[in-house]
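Let us work through a complete example step by step.
Step 1: write down the sequence.
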Amino acid sequence: MKYQKDYLDNLENELKNWLTKERYIHTQGVIEVAVQLAQKNNVNIKKTITAALLHDYAKPLNQKELYKYAKKINGDIDKTEMKIPSVLHAPVGAFLVKKKYDIIDKDILEAIRYHTIGSPDMSKLALIIFAADFIEPNREFPGVRKLRDISKGNLSQLIVAVCDQSIKFNINKKKIIHPNTLLLRNEYLGGK
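Step 2: predict the structure and record it as tokens.
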């Protein structure tokens, strides 16, 4: 059966060689936070570790390679997302890990696919990877400690706070805000 310890150990060893040292350290931080959130929210731990391990799989690709794959899977990537190169590794990563590792679990693929911009109606696993990527212990930005405190509460509040932080960051940097992030925020505003 997939997601057994040997499977995860092999996957981890492959990623250690595939990702940069800094990206691998980030991935370990995402795993740490994602497992904590999964335990609190009754989400399968092995699936959580798999999604966290693979969430940045396409990060080593350069922009030209990302666009090449993005065009190949065009139907799954909207025009707004194509205008934000920094998020293309998410859909391309989901596409590549499905092929390379024969991953068919839709929750894992969704978690990888939407970990950068979010999406309304995401599974709990996808919500956890979305939040864990933002607040893992190696990230440092104004407001991250407050987000880590909020993570001790319920997942809905954390999702709204992460979306708020992401939206504010993009406004301040005069960057495009993908509508999925706003839709996800609105979905969880007031609890779900």
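Step 3: interpret the result. The chain is about 65% helix and 0% strand.
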